[in-house]
Amino acid sequence: MTWSFTDSPAVFRAAAGGHLAAEAARNTAVLTLMDTAERLGWWTEPDGRVTGVLAVPPSGAPSFGAVTEEAARALAPAGLLGDERRPAVVRGETAAVEAYAEATGRPWEPTTRMRLFRLGELTPQDPAPEGRARLATEADVPLLAVWTAAFVVAMGHEPAEDYTGLLTERISGQRLRLWEAPDGRPVAMAALSRTIEGQARVHLVFTPSAERGRGYAAGVTEAVSRAARDAGAAQVLLFTDLSNPTSNALYQRLGYRPLTDHLSVTFSG
Is the entire prediction scored with pTM above 0.90? Predict the structure, then answer.
């Protein structure tokens, strides 16, 4: 049993493609990061089966996909970054991240607990919120950049200086929608990842504080979820912060069902 590493998405897919496809939902973060990651890894069993993967993005915070606790523990001496650097943050399914963190012997603490949901039968809000969904356009970018920064801060992270590229990429792919109030004001947003291995993930769900409590987030989430299904995504996923019971309840009303729990940990030594 061993870990192998590469910086080539093509090499990674050739080695781990079967596992990525078989566990597409649980590997959603790795699939999303795959083309831009600085380092990609896969765990091979004695019989040649790949049963675990990870991706290290430019931020240097490794993200586990579907990984056994045994494979996660084996990473502690093997290293995640390919050199003497030790990651300050690691993310992934809770059991694997905890196994890795304990095996390092370093002091650590949990920072964010997330839950991965998968859409079952999409259930529209009843009554529906006032207004309608529409595709975002480049004219919306200045407003959406402000909203994205606020979303990032609400998630406990430092905002970037510029979100133009991120937003433009999603707008050009028709993967970012707004909810408009009856007077035409944008009041909420939600985006979709690219569909990879049949799975797409809803993200950037945000409603400004002054507009909350009117069902706008549910309306725009329903719209992007339906768009993903209509575009052929077999699995539509989203992450929620377990500390936010409102959003967890909202997504379950729309038909999302829990799949796995995720954890981010920060090391202090």
Answer: yes
